Amino acid sequence: MRVRPPRGVADRWLAIAHERFGAEGLRIGAARACVLDVIARDAQCLVGAQEIVAAIRRDGGTGSQASVYRVFDDAYRLGLLRRELDDSGGVRYEIVLPESHHHHLVDDASGQTTPFHDDELEAAIVAAAHRLGVRMTGHEVRIRGVIAPHESRGPMPPT
Ligand SMILES: [Zn+2]
Ligand SMILES: [Zn+2]
Q1: Are both 45 and 113 inside the same structural domain?
Q2: What is the CATH number for 39?
Q3: Looking at the structure, do residues 89 and 106 belong to the same domain, yes or no?
Q4: 3-state secondary structure of 93
Q5: Ligand nearest to the Cα of 126, by number
Q6: Residue 111, helix vs strand vs coil
Q7: Together in a domain, 33 and 87
Q8: Choice between 159 and 73, residue whose per-residue pLDDT is larger
Q9: Distance from residue 39's CA to the centre of ligand 2 (Å)
Q10: Residue 2 lies in a domain
Q11: Counted domains in the chain
């Protein structure tokens, strides 16, 4: 049940990002467009801000690090990015789109994060929110553990 982001997610996110930046009166010049392109391509699951900065450099982006971080802040404020702290306190970002909704498995040994989606988990969260009487606007789940490569995954066997 591990997911790869579907193709087209980057383009969909970019279209929405350009629209929201435009609606805020934030003009998208070459430097800002380059940052958004790299975020769309590389931040489909949690990625450190510094890795994005490095990727922008590799792509020939010319903006200063401060200007790159301003784009992150604007995108976060406009609801285009989620962010969370990793175990060492660094900030990681990922793009927000309904069709790329997923959660994270964290391997205790390596600290590596793997995205997953689970329909039953989603249904349970919706039901819990209902029982709690909240109109849910978002949720996060992180499962930590030891990922055993040979253990069978998938639906629990019937009892
Ligand atoms: Zn993710
Ligand atoms: Zn969910």
Answers
A1: no
A2: 1.10.10.10
A3: no
A4: strand
A5: 2
A6: coil
A7: yes
A8: 73
A9: 22
A10: no
A11: 2
Residue 17 scores a pLDDT above 80: yes
Tens of pLDDT, residue by residue over 75-96, are 999 999 999 887 788 889 999 9
| 154 has a pLDDT exceeding 80 | no
Ligand with minimal distance to 96 CA:
1
Query: Residue 114's domain spans which residues?
Result: 102-145
Whether residue 84 sits in one domain with residue 123 = no
What are φ and ψ of residue 95, in 5° steps? -70, 155
113 belongs to a structural domain: yes
CA 60 – ligand 2 centroid, Å: 36
* Residue 158 domain-assigned (yes or no): no
Distance in Å, CA 151 to ligand 2 centroid:
24
CA of 3 to the centre of ligand 1 (A): 10
Identify how many contiguous H helices and E strands the chain contains and give both numbers.
Answer: 5, 6
Q: Which amino acid is at 44?
A: Q
Instruction: Compute the distance between CA of residue 43 and CA of residue 55 in angstroms, rounded to an integer.
Output: 11
Residue 65's nearest CA partner among 75, 77, 55 is 55
**Ligand nearest 141 Cα, by number?**
2
